[in-house]
Amino acid sequence: MRIFVFENMKTKLYILLFAVLSFASCRQAEKADDTQLRTGDLIFVGIPYDYELTDTSGMDAAIVDATGDSLGVNYIHVAIVEVDGDSVWIIDATAKRGVDRYPIDTFCCDFRLKDGSYPQFDVMRLKESPDCADFIDNAKGYIGRKYDLAFSPDNEEQYCSELVRNAFRNADGSYIFGEAPMNFKGPDGEFPPYWVQLFEWLGSPIPQDVMGTNPSDMSKDTNLVYIMSLNCKTMK
């Protein structure tokens, strides 16, 4: 009888140990999965606030002046991730490509800084983790459109965060991400020369305080959670 009890206890111990190991294994797998890109993730391209841009007269510098956060990272761009099998694709709107879909390694190269270094690539994800297939389909519907240099809500063209907002919509058509009055002024309260020259060339007023979006504000949206920072040197 004693032997039977000992064997029964030993069996229970084995079962308990197996359950603990299985749980630990699941936890590790879950943690590992959190470091993998998923369809619907957003990649925010950031430059440290104290980074000296080589070209201080371009769009990136103007965006930093207008929307940058002196306490951390200045986000100058946001892009949508689509994972298809072993391949990772980017859907975004840039001045170079308009709205397009292309491999992530090309994305990394496009944003390589002039000194050869990479900016910061921060991955964020919706907290609710919904099926993002509809968001991707929405984004693909804009492919081929031009980049919205005028940052206007009243045309068919798209800028980066505008594309994300238009793509991420609920089943009832409502937007997941909000809008706020746009700011094009620098810390000194003046418009950077880039914006002045651009909108003079476009023949339209600078859309100061017009409702819109920008990557820096979008990164702080309460619907998003930070996942990781990418090392673009390892992206394929």
The helix/strand order is: HEHEEEHEHHEHEHE
Quaternary structure = single chain
Rg calculated over all Cα atoms: 23 Å
End-to-end Cα distance: 63 Å
| Contiguous runs where pLDDT drops below 50 for at least 5 residues | 1-32, 53-57
Main sheet makeup: 6 strands, antiparallel
Which structural class do the helices and strands define?
alpha+beta
Looking at CATH, which topology of the largest domain would you report? endopeptidase fold (from Nostoc punctiforme)
Short description:
This protein has 236 residues and is of the alpha+beta class.
Structure description:
33% of the residues lie in helices and 22% in strands. A six-stranded antiparallel β-sheet has the order 4-3-2-1-5-8. Strands 6-7 form a two-stranded antiparallel ribbon. The chain is of the alpha+beta class. The N terminus is likely disordered. It folds into two domains: 33 residues; 198 residues, endopeptidase domain like (from Nostoc punctiforme) (endopeptidase fold (from Nostoc punctiforme), Alpha-Beta Complex). Helix 4 packs across helix 5.
